[in-house]
Each structure stands twice: as structure tokens, then as C-alpha cells.
Amino acid sequence: MNAMENLGFSKKKSQAFFRLLDYGNQNDLSIDELELLDLQHRSSSVHFAMPNVRERGREQDAAAKKEALGDFYAFLSRKFRTLVAAWRQGLDADADGRLRFPEFCNACKRLGYRGRLKTVWRALDTNNVGYLTLGHIDRVAEEGLDDFRSFLEDNFRTLDDAWERVFDSDKSGRCNESHFVDSCKKLRYPGNALRVFKWLVAGRLENSDVGGVRRDLYIDDFDILGLRRRSETLNPTAEQRVLERQAKDRAEAEAMLGRFKLFLNQRFGNLVRAWRQRLDLNRSGTVHFTDFCQACRHMGFQGNLKALWLSLDSADKGEVCLDDLDPDAVTCLLDFTRLLRIFFDDLDSSWFAVLDPEASGRCTMEEFERACKVLGYIRDAKQLQRFLDICNNGVITIDELEVLGLPRGSMEEAQARAKVQPSEAREELDRILQARFGPSAAQGWRQGLCTGPLEQQWTEEMSVEEFCNRCRQLGFQGNLLALWAQVHGAGLDPELLQAHQLMLMGRKRAGMRTSTAERRIRLAASDQGASSRSSTAQTSTLNLFEKPVRDGGETQVKLLGRISLVDFLPVLHKELLQFRKKAMAKFHSAEDLWAVLLQECGSSSCGSTCSNSRSRSHRSIFRSSSQSWWRR
């Protein structure tokens, strides 16, 4: 420990390193145990002959396993005569074919075995799979029974057929050893029939068996093979036949749908491109059965088109849409469309603002990824670009984006609006607020943007969608994306993004139970009003969903963050906080503060009077009175 501390390591880290290197748990180290560090040795002539601690530990562990396993096998042989009988009668009590460690310990204690259970378990479970099967106890028996099961499956449909036709031909309900061996010879079974009989008969003992050893075989003894049994109802009803036929049709339809999707992906690259190029030729968004069959024949798809249609039109609407063919792609397109609708009124404005700012007439993959970062798109931008790239030439044009359903606008106005800088957009909004609510920026925030109660307006928050809609209601016609970037910052909110990633990791760990993780998002959303935000664009290339979740874009909007007075007027918010802190320290209630302010107004009015003792004072009188009180 002193040597490690002399090298500059803390005491805590020194202890951790020591426990890591002490392979033999002997509370000391040897030079062999330092091999974990992969350091270079000196010349071999300098080495002294020292025992390899690691190798010695392995040998001791192997010897302990061998001894414990031999003792365990001897115990089972004495008690059950064979290992298969020990497995079926003693160890695998529930006959499920698997034995986990707690079940193994309980079975051994029930049988009276008092050996080293952990050592026996490690000796049997050599691959660390976490459970034992018959093969771990007797591999030869398991392989022999597997071969016999495969032989019966190749020759008979069910176990009942094999039992009635061969092993129980006299209808006695049992099969003795000689009859079993003769039956296997008639079937030309290539294995050792006598040994298979002993494995099968090694089930539970019965009182009628001679000398405690079973002499006959019953059909239930074949359960260890796991063969299929005959249905209890040999003559199914008409309803059962209908259900079976419907299940068969559904299975055929699902298989046909998988073939169809594979065919489209191989030919067109993705299902969206196939839909727009070959299926939805009239751009109506839906396809009827006759048009669908004609398009499939034109593409050269060979298959059961009726079954394929039933799989797509599961709701029996009489028509199918892209959502029936690829719902995940539609989810991505809807989220992206909602983002564009939040910031822009028409397709041309979004095109020149973020997708094609250089007005080159096309948008490359790099430009599209950069635009998704600016917009705060949370899904896979490259996959979305492939959905929109209908011509499959690596670039997107504005005509290909018409599938999103945004209206077209004026190209000249869109280009002029796209050149507006964030500071210019903020100045335009300030001019609108001043024209409608006076020169006070605080009044513009409270009367123009806030909708909640007066006492909550200094802490009221609004999402990006709420903010943009209120700006439109005020008459703002500028670049809303630039305005949001000026007020909040472009891209995703970093705190909410981190909380959302924690939620996704929590879903995996908790088996998709997300109550704790969802509380983290709500906590991050409630704390963001008092925290500073970065104004740089946040990356959104991470695909935050293994499978897109259809939530109407709510998660997308939530991760863009919210704004409050601290974002819109940070200097004013800071002054309010200081004033509030001072007032809380000096007064017990708002009424006490108001009384002092009224008193100061009366003493410093210089001829000016308040209109009412309980009403508002003039702004100049209030400013002078508050400054006088603040100095005191």
C-alpha cells in the first residue's frame, strides 16, 4: 500500500488495485499476479523459479470440482441406480426439463445430499448458462433420447400414433421390455433400444413394480421426449374448423406481406419510395384493390394478392394507405411535418430557411442532416432523407417534399424571410409588442404572450408551439425559427435530451416500465426555467427510438424545451429575483410591502396624490419610493 501511495495513488484506489490483483485471495501479491498489467519482464536469467499462483489456483479449483462432482454422482447412483432416474425422480421435480440453481439446491436438500452445492453447480454448469438439463447430468442419455425422438417424429405424426400402432398394439396400456425392443427392431431403429427403454422407464416408482424396479413402460413415460400429442377432440366442430381456417389464412397473409415488403425493399430501396413510384400513382394517398393488383402485376410480383390485400387492409376499409404498408416511416414523416408546421406557414419558407439556404434548388444529405439539427429532429435524419428522396439520386428537391402536405407559398417572400437574422426577428417582435402594449417590454410579455393568472406570469412557461402560435396571433410574419433561436437556442434542449436518453436506458433495464424515467423528464421540464441554456445548435443525429413511437410528435415538441421570462427578458428577471429576495427578507407578506410603498408614495409625492390608497401609484412615484426603501 505504501508503494502505491508513493507512486501517487490514493489509499482508496490502492486498496481497489490490490483486491483486483490478488487472484488467490491470500492477502499478498506475487510477480505472477502482476501479469494482469501486461508489463514487460526482464531477461529470463534474472527470474527466480517461483510457482505460478494463477495456474495453481486453477488446478486447485479443477480438483475441487472433480472431487465434488464424483461425490455427487456416487450419491445419485446409490439412491437411484442411474443418473436418468435421479434426474426424473429427484432433481427435475416439475418435469420442465430445466433446473436453476435455487431448484437445484432445494432438490439436493430434499434428497439428503450434504455436499458442496456451489462447487457441484460450477462443475456441472461449465458454460455458465444459468440452468441445468439432463445433458449436464448424463450427456449420453440426452443425446440418445434426442435421437429416439427425432426417429419417432420422422415416422409418426403424434406420440399417440406411435404408441397405439407399435408399442401398445394389444391395447393393454403398457409395454414391457421385450415388446419395446422387438417393436424398435421392426421400425428399424438404428440405436440401442434396450438402453432407450431403461432411460424411459426411469420415471416415478410404482407399488406394482417388482422389487422397486419398473418392468413396464406407459405412454406418460414418453413425456420426456417432448413429442406432440393428439388433440383430445378428434372431430372438431364447424366453429373450430372456421377458426383453424382463419388462423391459416392469417399466417399465409403475414408470410405474403413479409415477401412483398422484401420485394419492394430490394427493388426500390425502401417502402416509401415504392409506394410513391409504383403504388400511389395518382397521389391520392390511398389505393383500392383493383389498382393495387394491377400495380403488383406491373412490378412483377408473384404471389397470393388476395391474401396480401387482407393483410394490409386488416380493418376492411376497402383501401390501403402508406400507414398500412410502413407505419414506422409514416411516424417519422409526421414528426418532421409537425416541426415544419410549428416554425413555417408554407413549404417554400421552410425550404429556403433551413433545407436550401443557398437557393441551389436541391438539398444534399449533409445539408439535410444540418437542417434536422437546427430544427431539433430527434430521429434518424439519414433514414428520413431516404424516405423523401423519391428519385434515389442522393438529393431532395422541393417538389419531393410536397408529400408532407404543407401549402406552397411565394418564393420571393420565402427567400426574403429566410435571410432574416435571429436578432432582426427579435427586433421585429419587440416593435409589434411596443406598438400594441406600450414601450414596456414587461407589459409586452405579460399582455401579449402570457395567458395564465397575473400572479404566475413571471414564472409562466410555454412550449415552442405555443410561443410560435402566440406570435402569429400578434401579427408576427417573420422567421419564427430565427426568433426561437434568439430566445431559446436552436435545436434540442440539452437537459431534456439527457433526461430522455436516461428514460430510454431505464426502459431497457426495467423491461419497458418507465414511471421513474418519465418523472425525470417532468423534473427536467420543471427545473429548466431557472437554468441557463446553450444557444449553440445541439446535435440530433442520435436515433433516440429503436422503434418509432406514434405519439403525435409530443415527445418531439417536448424535447425542444420551453421558455419563460428568464429567457425572454433575462435582465428584468434578474432584477425581479433580487427585489423579491430583498422583500422576502424584510416583510412577512405582500400587504406589508404594499403598505410601505404607499407610505413612501405619500411622503415623496411632492404634490402628486395617489388616486386611491389601495390602487396603483404612478410609475414615477413608485420608482422613487422603491429606490428610497431599497436604500434603507
TrEMBL record:
Matching SUPFAM superfamilies = EF-hand (SSF47473)
The cross-references to PROSITE patterns, in alphabetical order and at most eight, read:
EF_HAND_2
Tell me which InterPro entries the record gives: EF-hand-dom_pair, EF_hand_dom
Q: What one GO molecular function would you report for this record?
A: calcium ion binding
Domain EF-hand, residue spans: 91-114, 277-302
- Name recorded for this polypeptide: Mug40 protein
**Gene encoding this polypeptide?**
mug40
